[in-house]
């Protein structure tokens, strides 16, 4: 009897950035490499075949997803992206932008027939703007709802889930120990919560970041609120190895 195909995971972490002349820009993302390596080990233990890539240009990032369309895949495809970014965009190590919609388009093309039929799960650790989240009082329930930006949500293809480190327009925090978002994901994946359905697991990550994390030092007290969008039609359990 043949063995079932192994689910795949692609982890991309950019820590050092340069300009068109090769000069260093944006500053080194300290702590990002170590947590990406830890996530890769965790996913390997959860029976994923993991590909970990460091410091890739915008073109190389697109090429990596093009390559995934030609791979054999199991039940799920997971991708973790850790880089600088802005709303709807992540940066290559050459400081050039890659639109998330472009990545989704590649994976939903006719070239990747296997990928179009399986759940594709993204965790994106990157800023989505320049605003700092000062947090809210949880007791306050009478305020007018704030306007939100859903434009980038509308472009995800079928069978896709995307979880962002922060809300639209805000920064995502990272320090030498790692990021609020991916550290919370690590904690959930290492615990019994990994057996939960994906939407419940992501809600646990939200709770962990909202109530257990806040910035220190220069940005003392600032918060972060992850959010996710899904168009799955049924519960999936991608980390219940």
UniProtKB/TrEMBL annotation:
PROSITE patterns assigned: CASPASE_P10, CASPASE_P20
Protein's GO biological process: proteolysis
Pfam short name (any one): Peptidase_C14
Superkingdom classification of source: Eukaryota
SUPFAM superfamilies: Caspase-like (SSF52129)
Domain (Caspase family p20) ranges: 5-131
Domain Caspase family p10 as annotated: residue spans: 178-240
GO MF annotation, one: cysteine-type endopeptidase activity
PANTHER family membership: CASPASE 14, APOPTOSIS-RELATED CYSTEINE PEPTIDASE, MUCOSA ASSOCIATED LYMPHOID TISSUE LYMPHOMA TRANSLOCATION PROTEIN 1/PARACASPASE
Family stated for the protein in its record: Belongs to the peptidase C14A family.
Name of this protein: CASP3 protein
Organism: Ardeotis kori
Gene name of the record: Casp3_1
